Amino acid sequence: MPKKTKSKKDKNRNGVDDRLDWITNACAVILPFTTLDQLYIIYIEKKIEGVSAITWFLYGLLSIPLLIYSLKRKDLPMILLNGLWVLFDFAVWAGVVIFS
To answer: pTM to 2 decimals?
Structure first.
């Protein structure tokens, strides 16, 4: 019986196409930056209407265990993702507290 060969690259030998690894790693870094518009509105325009301090505080707080888990696993994309979420979530929360 012939050996099955993978048609797509899998340098990590994790059964995942390397292109998918690259896409998810890029998304892990880019995703938290979707919050920059919220930070701009709060810190530059000084508008906090409709922004819940408790929601953003809980987002930040609940991201901490995910960051710790990522650090324990030594998974760089997840460390970046969760670290940036902690930073940005608490920045939004702080802005709401400061300008309310």
So the answer is: 0.78
